[in-house]
C-alpha cells in the first residue's frame, strides 16, 4: 500500500518537474520561441483554453512570433490574454494575425526573465509540496483506518520527504542552468 502511494507520488512529482522544464524551454535568451506563448490561458467563449489550441504559432523571424487564430473571432481574446500575461510583450494585430516582436535583450529584460523563471520555479516547488501533502494525508488516513502500522506510516512519510527533496533539488538545478543561459550575453 505504501509502495503504491510512493510510486504515485513519484510519478506526479516527476511530471510536475517535466512541465516546469517544458516551461523553461519557452524562455529563450536570444531568440523568439513559440513555447513562450503556447500554454498562455485565453478566455475563449467563457472557457479558459491554451493558446496552442486556438491558433497556429510560428516564428517567421528570429525575433518574432506569429499567431494565426483558427477562428478570427478569437483575435481580441488572444490579444487581451497576451496583454495581461507576465510575458511583457506588446501584441500587434495585423488583420487576422497577431505579431509579437521580441525586444532586444537588455540587462533589464534579462533580469525580468530571470524573475519570471524564479516565479515559475516557485510555482513548481509549491506543486511538489502539495503532492507531498496529499501523499502524507493518504498515509495518515491508512494509519487511522488501521490498514498500516505507525512504523509503516513514518517510513512512508520519510520516503515522501526524500522524493520531495530530490525533485525540489532538480527544480533548483534547472533554475540555475536557465538563469546562466539567460544572463549570458
Write up this protein:
The strands form two sheets. The chain has a four-stranded antiparallel β-sheet with strand order 3-4-6-5, with helices on one face. The protein folds into two domains: 2-24 and 106-183, Topoisomerase I, Chain A, domain 4 (Orthogonal Bundle), CATH 1.10.132; 31-101, Gyrase A, domain 2 (2-Layer Sandwich). The longest helix is centred in the last third of the chain and has 38 residues, at 107-144. The chain is 59% helix and 16% strand. Helix 1 (2-25) runs antiparallel to helix 4 (107-144) and helix 1 (2-25) packs parallel to helix 5 (150-183). It is an alpha+beta fold and 185 residues long. It is built from five helices and six strands, in the order ααββββαββαα. A hairpin with a 2-residue loop joins strand 5 and strand 6 (97-101). The chain is elongated, with a radius of gyration of 21 Å.
Unreliably modeled segments:
none
Order of adjacent strands in the largest pleated sheet: 3-4-6-5
- CATH topology annotation of the largest domain: Topoisomerase I, Chain A, domain 4
Order of helices and strands: HHEEEEHEEHH
Number of helices: 5
Average pLDDT, rounded to a whole number, is 90
**Proportion of beta-strand residues:** 15-25%
Question: CATH-wise, what's the superfamily of the largest domain?
Answer: Ribosome-recycling factor
Helical content band: 55-70%
First-residue to last-residue Cα separation? 51 Å
Secondary-structure class = alpha+beta
Give the tally of β-strands.
6
The level 1 CATH classification of the largest domain is Mainly Alpha
**Overall 3D form:** elongated
CA gyration radius, whole angstroms: 21 Å
Amino acid at each position: 500500500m505504501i509502495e503504491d502511494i510512493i510510486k504515485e507520488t513519484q510519478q506526479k512529482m516527476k511530471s510536475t518537474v517535466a512541465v516546469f522544464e517544458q516551461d523553461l524551454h519557452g524562455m529563450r535568451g536570444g531568440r523568439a520561441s513559440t513555447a513562450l506563448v503556447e500554454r498562455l490561458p485565453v478566455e475563449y467563449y467563457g472557457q479558459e483554453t491554451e493558446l496552442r489550441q486556438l491558433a497556429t504559432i510560428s516564428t517567421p523571424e528570429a525575433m518574432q512570433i506569429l499567431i494565426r487564430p483558427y477562428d478570427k473571432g478569437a483575435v481580441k481574446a488572444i490579444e487581451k490574454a497576451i496583454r495581461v500575461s507576465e510575458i511583457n510583450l506588446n501584441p500587434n494585430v495585423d488583420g487576422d494575425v497577431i505579431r509579437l516582436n521580441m525586444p532586444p535583450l537588455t540587462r533589464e529584460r534579462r533580469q525580468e526573465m530571470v524573475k519570471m523563471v524564479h516565479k515559475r520555479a516557485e510555482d513548481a516547488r509549491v506543486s511538489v509540496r502539495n503532492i507531498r501533502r496529499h501523499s502524507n494525508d493518504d498515509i495518515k488516513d491508512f494509519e487511522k483506518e488501521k490498514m498500516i502500522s505507525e512504523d509503516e506510516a513514518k517510513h512512508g512519510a520519510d520516503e515522501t520527504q526524500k522524493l520531495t527533496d530530490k525533485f525540489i533539488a532538480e527544480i533548483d538545478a534547472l533554475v540555475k542552468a536557465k538563469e546562466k543561459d539567460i544572463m549570458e550575453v
